[in-house]
Design a protein that fits this description.
alpha+beta, about 160 residues, 6 strands, single chain, 3-stranded mixed beta sheet
């Protein structure tokens, strides 16, 4: 592993810890050349996945993009970075077992929506407003009413 500060090729692992969900290992590293300290993460990757976007554009799946989109939806909400990381790990695992190496972006959006509704209902609504491309206030109102109906029928649980 190259040092991000001085590009030295030899770094030392000082501490390794598994993540809470067991899907990754966090390593604290030290550079003997410059003394810099940094953290790396190792994750299991079963296969390379490709996202099929609108217009048939293709690009590699970027886990960090999933995390960023969730962070935007959950900004100023009572959800920890660890909860978002755990949800993103779960989404990536589901995508890896999806069965196809190419996954439509719309499917990824559905997986993210499913994770967000478990984390925070407001974050879910924020994400849905972009994902479902609300154009008018009525679209937003209809969506919120649908959620309230599902909630009252106990078909969705709202985290507290």
């Amino acid at each position: 592993m190259h040092c991000p500060f001085c590009s030295n090729e030899e770094t030392q692992v000082k501490d390794s810890r598994p993540s809470d969900d067991g899907g990754s290992i966090r390593r604290r590293r030290n550079c003997p050349s410059c003394g810099g300290r940094f953290t790396t993460f190792e994750r299991i990757q079963l296969r390379d996945l490709v996202v099929v976007k609108s217009g048939d554009r293709r690009q590699p799946l970027d886990r960090e993009k999933i995390i960023r989109s969730m962070q935007v939806a959950l900004r100023k909400r009572p959800v920890s970075v660890e909860q978002i990381e755990k949800a993103a790990n779960g989404i990536v695992r589901q995508l890896e077992s999806y069965g196809e190496p190419e996954i439509p972006a719309t499917e990824i959006g559905k997986f993210v929506m499913k994770a967000l509704i478990e984390l925070d209902i407001v974050g879910y609504i924020r994400y849905a407003s972009v994902y479902k491309d609300f154009r008018e206030p009525e679209d937003f109102n209809a969506f919120v009413e649908e959620i309230q109906t599902l909630q009252s029928e106990k078909k969705i649980r709202v985290a507290e």
